[in-house]
Known about the structure:
The chain is α/β, with parallel strands linked by helices. It has 5 helices and 5 strands; from the N terminus they run βαβαβαβαβα. Strands 2-1-3-4-5 form a 5-stranded parallel β-sheet, sandwiched between helices. Helix 2 packs parallel to helix 3 (71-80). The two termini are 27 Å apart.
Amino acid sequence: MIIAPARPYDVLLIEDDEADALLIEDALLARGARNLVQVHEGVAGLAYLRDPSRSRPDLIVLDLNMPRMNGRELLAVIKEDRDTIPVVVLTTSSAPDDVAGAYQHYANAYVTKPVNLDDFERAVQSIDAFYLETVTRLPR
């Protein structure tokens, strides 16, 4: 049974692949109230995070392979800023250097995108359940 959260959670999705973005959005919305904002590359993600008129997301879901500023570069900047928003890397790469690099830049989790549609949906819903419902977060 899915229990709707007391307030909609804010998720910032930084993903350039529209098909993957739609799958992620569907998986999150299936679990309850979510405010999802998608940007297509790292520069736009950084601008969103640094815009004082925007609400801070509760979770960032970040792809690694994007144009302009890729996910590796953005993650380094976000964590260099001492940002406490959890960042989950959700990407097609399972390369050891990518995994190690993400954790070296303080990603909170690294998930390789499953190829199977049902597995993909389960992976996104697991991220959602853990970071938005299970963990204790800092107050806003």
